């Protein structure tokens, strides 16, 4: 049966797949912090994921600070230029039935890959729907 995952299950799978990540949690929420490098030539990014059982998940790049491109365009696929837009909630692409370690974290690698390409090409090549 595909049921909602508990915070402890989420924490355990993050630690199993990403052993260098730091994870703090209580019964209702977790905060995971780790480093992502989309490709061997990429920058290393410090990521913070906040997940609460009753709120939407939030993913932020803590370091380095994300910047607009040479044309001064806002960074695509972000909520208020603060948190990453990795999926469309209305399509239930991520729910509490999914593991963060097999969805959100890999999607963050992809998002950062397309962010770097956007800086090179000026085009967002990662698809998706644009959110303001």
Low-confidence stretches: none
Structural class comes to: alpha+beta
Helicity range? 10-25%
Radius of gyration: 15 Å
Summed up, the helix count is: 2
Shape: globular
- How many strands appear in the DSSP assignment? 6
Q: What fraction strand?
A: 15-25%
Distance between the termini: 36 Å
SSE string: HEEEEEEH
Average of per-residue pLDDT values? 93
| Largest β-sheet summary | 4 strands, antiparallel
User: Biggest sheet, strands in spatial order?
Assistant: 1-2-3-4
Secondary-structure map:
Layout: H1 7-17, E1 22-25, E2 29-36, E3 45-52, E4 58-63, E5 78-79, E6 83-84, H2 104-121
Antiparallel strand pairs: 1-2, 2-3, 3-4, 5-6
Describe the structure in your own words.
The protein is of the alpha+beta class and about 130 residues long. Helix content is about 20%, strand content about 25%. It is built from two helices and six strands, in the order αββββββα. Strands 1-2-3-4 form a four-stranded antiparallel sheet, covered by helices on one side. Strands 5-6 form a two-stranded antiparallel ribbon. β1 and β2 form a beta hairpin. It is globular and about 45 Å long.
Give a quick precis of the structure.
The protein is an alpha+beta fold and 132 residues long.
Question: What are the salient characteristics of this protein?
Answer:
132 residues; alpha+beta; four-stranded antiparallel sheet; two-stranded antiparallel ribbon; 6 strands; 22% helix; 23% strand
């Amino acid at each position: 049966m595909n049921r909602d995952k508990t915070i402890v299950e989420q924490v355990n799978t993050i630690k199993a797949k990403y052993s260098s990540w730091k994870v703090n949690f209580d019964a209702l929420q977790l905060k995971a912090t780790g480093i992502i490098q989309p490709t061997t030539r990429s920058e290393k990014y410090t990521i913070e994921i906040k997940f609460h059982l009753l709120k939407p998940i939030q993913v932020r790049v803590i370091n380095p600070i994300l910047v607009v491109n040479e044309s001064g365009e806002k960074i695509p696929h972000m909520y208020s230029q603060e948190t990453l837009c990795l999926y469309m909630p209305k399509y239930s692409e991520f729910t509490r039935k999914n593991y963060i370690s097999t969805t959100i974290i890999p999607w963050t690698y992809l998002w950062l890959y397309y962010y770097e390409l956007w800086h090179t090409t000026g085009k967002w090549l990662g698809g998706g729907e644009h959110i303001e």
